[in-house]
Amino acid sequence: MTTGTARPRFDPELRASLAIVGGMFPPTITPDLIGFMRTTYASGRLEDDFEEAGITRTDHECAGHGGGGIRLSLLRPRGDDRDLPVLLYIHSGGLMFGDRFSGIETAIEWIRTIGVAVLTVEYRLAPEHPDPYAREDVYAALRWIALHAGRNRLRRDRVLVMGASAGGGLAAGLALAARDRGGPAIIGQVLDYPMLDDRGATGSTAQFDGVGVWDRVSNETGWTASLGAGRGGPDVSPYAAPSRAADLSALPPAFIDVGAAEIFRDEAIDYAERIWAAGGDAELHVWSGGFHAFDIFAPHTRLARGMIQARSDWVGAVLAD
Questions:
Q1: What pTM was computed for the model?
Q2: Which of 122, 153, 172, 245 could form a disulfide with 100 if both were Cys (CB 3.0 to 4.6 A apart)?
């Protein structure tokens, strides 16, 4: 742990939650902890949650990178036969762990309150499946929506992408790829405390070394699992590390939120500023005292409730006709 480094303080209510969080999500994740994280960060059974929320689930498969099959789950309001806008949900987990239902609770709420369908994708994980597996798998899921929208009562003209942490980086890379490849069209991107830059050179990366949730070493572990020896080098694709993109013009509107007390603060702010500089639309929220993913780990807190509400308001406005 780096000592003597000035850093923003954690919100007092959130700080009380950190001791509990550390039991399942240690501040520093090294390669030997990947197996542990795949157990502790796995989602539980959600069938009861779907039932209580009035959601129907259908499972599908499509060909991902290299032709391998990837699993998709489509969630819809029960009994709603309209053609619905659709949210492509990309889960968190540092590119190494998590599953398609990890952290999906807010998206489930939107199915009920906004009337949106959610497609969630089981992209393949590093290090067993290094770059470009994850980013090409999520692009394949976007193409699946465009190809199968009619039979699944989805509106291909109202597709929003959303991801948190590693999923946020993948969502940003997906928006870049869809722009450069001529589609499928995306109307907005929700980037929750996104993992955007493999180089780890920001001031906030140095500030949160050995403290909080997801520190400098954890970030190096995740990026190295995906990029190998290429991490930090000149040949990393901007679809993998979107901060490397030279051109952020002509992207769909972005909602970017991040805690002030976490390593991704500076790269998230920089990404929003560069979208604005390119003439684009970005709404940026920096939550004072917020550690990484505090809305997932401490959703009951005042700060988390504010973050979730701001995000929900933006999504509702973007998906409205």
A1: 0.96
A2: 122
